[in-house]
Amino acid sequence: MGAPRDELARRYAAVRAASERLMAPLSEADFRIQSMPDVSPPFWNLGHTSWFFAANVLRPLGREPAGFPGFDYTFNSYYEGIGPRLPRAQRGRVAQPATSRVREYRAAVDAAMQDWIAQCPESQLPALADVIAIGIEHEQQHQELFVTEILHIRSSAPADLRVPYASAAPASVDAADPTPLRAIGFAAADSLLGHDAPGFCWDNELPAHRVHVPAFALGDRLITNAEWLAFVADGGYRRPLLWLSNGWAAVQQHGWQAPLYWERQGERWLRWTLRGLVDVAAAAPVCHVSFYEADAFARWYGEQFAAWRHARLPRESEWEHAARQHGFDQVGGNLLDGDLARCAFDVLPAARSEALRQLAGDVWEWTLSHYEPYPGYRPFAGALMEYNGKFMDNQRVLRGGSFATPRAQARRGYRNFWPADTRFQATGVRLLLDR
Questions:
Q1: Closest CA to 44 of 137, 133, 153
Q2: DSSP track, 419-434
Q3: Which one of 214, 254, 317, 390 is separated from 128 by 20 to 30 angstroms, measured CA to CA?
């Protein structure tokens, strides 16, 4: 029975090493910056992902590393059942624990985890593997968060002092005129919604169940910057009738005039990316837009093109039905690779194809669906019951994955969720046509 134990140790070590590689380009100052309440400083992600294993695996066994007072308070995210914690908005206001101490804590947790994986009795190994699988998926979620958070952190410096996270991308040809949006039709059907494949899933992806999906047509690609530029030029951010009431209030409150990270220099639109300031590429998918912006754009697009008169965002059942019918190719998608040299760290234009494109990667796709439990939903047991279920309130579901999503984590049934005004995540738009 050595092979499963060795594989568990390997998978644990691999995901922990991947987090370290992602943070390797940071300066010491970067680790302490919290650019807004929703963005955690990198030192906190480094500590919290270690605390997760300490609290959920090592503590019940009496194997939690000693000598780290205050770490439980500092790195507990939102687990009320475990105890008090540092408020989220204050994570960037503390000087202690120092980043060097957080690294010591991480090393101590890793040593204790590998020791227990090696010593765990065979009868307890399946249960240990289940909890470690949750911890691995949790850490991968924080790898994605780190990528989107360091983008926001680096963007918050004065313009002349901004530093890219990654080196400049090689020059690429950008089609000035993206391929016209095509509608791919789907007949009405009874379809499965939820995780029904081998491998890990979160509790919110279960149980898989049958739903009726009326006939619809789905855009064959994501909405592009060129299409969004037309929306901006036509006064999309100045026309209240395009917007939901809460969306228009957000436009007024925050002064939205374009997607997050866009800036105008004369007649030229630029955007801040992980690779620095670049021109807005016409054929690339629009990124960093809220649900409210996506919803308003759909309404505007329907006004412009008769063939898309009743355009809207898809429901998650419609999106997943299309993914089941046309395949969900995370292998070919623009996702986060373990080999960082291969990562785009940004959105890419859709490849020319007659198929449904960009379902996996580039941007998370907003859906109309509110984040709610599936019929028969049961949360994880113990403290982990707080992981997903208690956030099923005032959030919208996104599907597909982004350039910041670890490739191993992308799957057809994954339910991402964020408040409707969220923009700092890699979020974009695919349109649906009612039939």
A1: 153
A2: -TT--SS-EE---EEE
A3: 390
